[in-house]
Specification:
Elements (H helix, E strand, L loop, with lengths): L3 H16 L4 H8 L3 H9 L6 H10 L15 H4 L17 H12 L2 H15 L3
Helix pairs in contact: 1-3, 2-3
C-alpha cells in the first residue's frame, strides 16, 4: 500500500520535473539511475531515500523541503474534487493545465507578463 507521504513527494518530483521541462530519462541520467525508478518514485510505488531525494533536489534545482511543501495540510483537504467555481484546489500543481499555464506565463517577457497579470486580476475580480 502506498504511503500518502511517498505519493505526495512523488507528485512534487513529477511537477518540478515537468515545470523545468525535463524528461524522466534526463532526470534519471542526472541522478544516476534508470528512468523506471523515477516512474516508481513519481507514482509513490517506491520510497525515495534521503540521499536520493537530495540528488533529485539538486538535479531539479530546489531545496529538499520543496518536496514536502503542502504536507502540513490534512491529506483529505488536499483533494478537492468538488471545488466551488472560483476557488483554488489545495493541490493546484496536480492540474496539468495549471502547470502548463504557469510555464507559458513565465515564458512571456517580463513587461508583458506584468500587464497580463494585471489583466487577469481585473478579470477575476468578480464584484
Amino acid at each position: 500500500m502506498k504511503h500518502p507521504v511517498d505519493v505526495h513527494v512523488g507528485k512534487r518530483i513529477r511537477h518540478r520535473r515537468w515545470m523545468v521541462g525535463m524528461t524522466q530519462q534526463q532526470l534519471a541520467e542526472k541522478v544516476g539511475i534508470k528512468f523506471q525508478q523515477i516512474q516508481k518514485y513519481e507514482t509513490g510505488m517506491n520510497r525515495v531515500s534521503a540521499s536520493r531525494l537530495w540528488d533529485i533536489a539538486e538535479a531539479l534545482s530546489v531545496p529538499v523541503a520543496f518536496f514536502f511543501e503542502g504536507m502540513d495540510m490534512p491529506m483529505a483537504a488536499q483533494v478537492a474534487p468538488d471545488c466551488e467555481e472560483g476557488s483554488v484546489p489545495a493541490d493546484i500543481l496536480a492540474d496539468k493545465e495549471a502547470l502548463e499555464l504557469v510555464r507559458s506565463y513565465y515564458a512571456i517577457p517580463e513587461n508583458q507578463r506584468r500587464r497580463l497579470f494585471e489583466l487577469a486580476r481585473v478579470l477575476s475580480d468578480v464584484a
